[in-house]
Amino acid sequence: MKFSYNWICELVEGVNTGARELGQLITMKTAECEGVEPFGEHLAHVCAARVLEVTDIPGSHNKKVVVDAGQHGKKTVVCGAPNCREGMITAYAPPGVKLARGEIRRMEVAGVLSDGMLASGAELDINRDAEGVLEFAAEPGDPIPGCAPDSIIEIDNKSITHRPDLWGHHGLAREVAAILGLRLKNPVNTARLPEGAGDVLVSIEDFDLCPRYSALTFDNVTVQPSPLWLQYRLHSIDLHPINNIVDVTNFVMAEITEPMHAFDRDTLKGDTIYARPARAGEFITALNQETYKLEESMVVIADARGPVAIGGVIGGLDTGIVDRTRRIVLEAANFKAASIRKTSTRLKLRTDASMRFEKAQDPTNTVRGLARAVELFEQASPGLRLVGGVADAMRPIPPPPEIALDLQWLARKLGRNVDPKQVLEILERLEFEVREEASKWLVAKVPSWRATRDISIKDDLVEEVGRMIGYDAIPPRPPLIPSTVPPANEERLFHRGVRAAIAAQGFTEVYNYSFVNEEMARRFGMDPAAHVAVTNPIADDQDLLRISLAPRVWKNIQDNSRHFDSFRLFEIGYEIHRKADGLPDEADHLVAAIYERDGDGRAGLFELKRVGECLMPGLEAAPVEARPFEHPARAYQIRWRGETVGRLYEMHPSMGEGRAAMLDVNLQRVRGLGAAPKRYQPLRKFPASAFDLSVVAGVRELAGEVEKKLRALAGESLETIEFVRQYTGPPLAEGTQSLSFRLTVYAPDHTLTAEEVSGIRARIIDGMRASGYDLRV
Amino acid sequence: MSEEQLNELSSRALQRIEAASTEEELETVRVEALGRKGALAQASRQMGALAPEERARIGKLLNAVKQSLESSLERRKAAFAEKALRERLESEWVDLTLPAPGIRPGSLHPVTQVQAELEDLFISLGFTVLGGPEVETERNNFDALNIPPEHPARDMQDTFWLEGGYVLRTHTSPVQVRGMERLGPPLRMIAPGRVFRNEEVDASHEHTFYQIEGMMVDRDVSIAHLLYFMKTLISAIFHRDVTVRLRPGYFPFVEPGFELDIHCLICGGKGCPVCKYNGWVELLPCGLVHPNVLRMSGIDPEEWNGFAFGLGLTRLVMMRYGIDDIRLLMSGDLRFLRQF
Fold first, then answer.
1. What ipTM was reported for this prediction?
2. Quick one: B166 and B286 in the same domain?
3. Where do the domains of chain A lie, and which CATH numbers do they carry?
């Protein structure tokens, strides 16, 4: 939202604080000022000039013009404007003046030395008119009336979301007056409103949607450009000057935050204006030439025939102001904020009016708007006449709330004492009506422009007082709190442990987006329909929520393989799984990956298995049917303590170059199993004995399975079993392998005799043979 | 054997001991002189033939010769061992300027590191660390935070909407709601986590970033208390004095609400892309918890009140390490991540 510094200064008596400093003060006490920029600086050097002589330049569309430029004297300039004619007063910019399009230089144009320039409104940043040179009434040498250099103060819209009054200059001026301790002027004189019955009737069907509708009719209107000062002011804050009627409505909106609309009275059917919910199937073509389908939740302004405006959002094209308009009905209404916001969202149409109404405007303000417009029309459309009084339909406006403020409570909230006099003064400057009740109690009546939503409870007054005394004036103080041990967050502690362990093994942590797209999902064999979909994705490639970390980690691998031949990385993040009802399940997963450009990939898989064992001592890998993106002979499930907790695999070579091993662990499940139980075993008292066994098995037989069989056969006397080596080749038959293990056996109560040990060994050998294994003994 | 012969034997053997150039040669000398069949053993066997007084004299001499040979042998042997050791050690020279083999530790994401630091800080101040889901209900993300459906504040945060009417949380504030409902008053909690905003990505905007929400609910919590915690927090984060300012800010879930700004640490307040060239960086929105928010989570605002703050963890990480492009954090680029 842009504010004109000059405008604010006109509304506050005796401001002598510069625009930049004012911006700082506003930031610290009211709302965030995003910047202060000079506007129209060149206007200090531009003056009125009378055109004395216009002569054609042969072979050029330009003309040689001689002007009387007051203190600059007679000047010859070259000008191409079609409206340039003898006797007119226009704007002369001498050489050296900097305009938006560049600095004006004394230069030869079409063979004529042009000593300065005659400028259009657009060139001077007074309006958007680039059709011809500016034309106005003044004496040569005068500044352009009402068009002085200004500064534009830009306030962050987000910081005034809660302040309906700050969407106009008078509201911000009130803050400035309060901050600087100066007097605020009232630009509105309601005594100017005519008495008597209105020219039109107003009928409000739903007072909740439209609490008030005030209208005033004017005739003998002349539609023409506004005075320059009015155009300049609107242009400076990014409102486009259109014509005197529309400009006045915009000016009132920008000044006292009352959005208004003018209808051409002669295009309205009947004498009644209706404010009612739209009927199903109604359409309206708006001033922006767009046609909108209306819904029953929207408020329309209608005449006897149908909608003529979308209430609080935009006027209709058919009843708008045109050059031939002679009679107008001026609307100043109030609408329900939530409804306006909804309508504007549904129609994807945000206007200057809707932006203000959705902040909950003050219903007392409608007639003030009309009164201000009456005054402005006198300047902008001379000869215009009022027809009848104000037609004003409304429901009773609730009395402004009174808030009782316990000053001791206020001090406790602020954390410091404030002089009651100062509290009183601050609130009164902000135009609260304050009275003292008992000692240390104030009752503050909220001003109407802040009573709609902004201020309703005593906590809101803490802010008013706090910001005006300045938060820097509150000394920090530690609270008195019981010293208790906060409950631990097991999940986070667990993640920390996992992260530390994995990083210690050489892996670098990455973070990835929670989004994937259809193609990623499909490449990883996942049904896009199984994902939770984003209804308004930021980009087409990020419209699904990940149900696996793998696709994004795979992308990390591909990206990094451009820079490194070998690397390790991991991510801990949440898979988001759709549920039949309720919020999705979010399961924390670890995906660790090893990439090697060269090699056979075995080492990476075993390294990941070892890393897995760091987290889950004794994990088991069990072969599993490979998914399409997995190496068909290198896909394993990870099982731990009887549960399937993850997967270990190599990426299928069709996915990309090099070898990538991936470990995917469902941390939620691992954590659910609790810490691995630990129990002390008494140290063995008698020596143990060891022997090796080499089992001959098929080459695809799993060592883990063979080991399990040996373990079962060894029974209770087994202390440890260790894999020693795997061997293929002569003298073993083709298609077989030898798997050697070292078994250590013991007895808790005596030293095993040689006979006992060979008995155990024989039992195992016999058992294995009975299961069809050959043993190399 | 005569005395002369013995002396002769002794001096010859000693000579050979000194002359031995290997341990083997030395052993040969030992066997020939001192072995079971060696010269001295033979001499001692001949002793029986001597007269008793002669035998005593020769016997003494024999012993002396034996001792002298043995000690020479020991000495020489030790010299050989020492030489061998010296040679071995010399041959074992290593060049430790060569790189050490094996895997280097990886690294944790900078956000992880700073987050852990802040968690520890708050735990030490008696705060509990809470988590919450990335996908939230509209109620927890908005309504229970005093942002009803048609409230214009909903426009302050560009929201990712999901099927089923859920949202990707736009802030960590819904964890306040979860915390209040789970723990009840009094409470002190923080909630670090990932949040989402539907906005275009550039050097200073990301649609996915990290925040830390903090909340304290107790009796008579004041702005002065909030300021104390914020100053403690900030000096702990930056390990130095940072210029801060508190100014009014509007957030529907606090009243009054503040923006806490700090001088940009990248440019020191001179202006750069990170601070959008204004020298100040919005670090912390904060405020006293709005009574409606307490009430909606079943806490009586007449009895309890509190403060809440939301810290831009991502922004903080960028300031801490001087990162000028937010996109790097979610890039998975090891050239970047290995620096931490």
1. 0.86
2. yes
3. 2-40+150-180 (3.30.56.10), 41-119 (2.40.50.140), 190-394 (3.50.40.10), 402-473 (3.30.56.10), 490-672 (3.30.930.10), 689-775 (3.30.70.380)
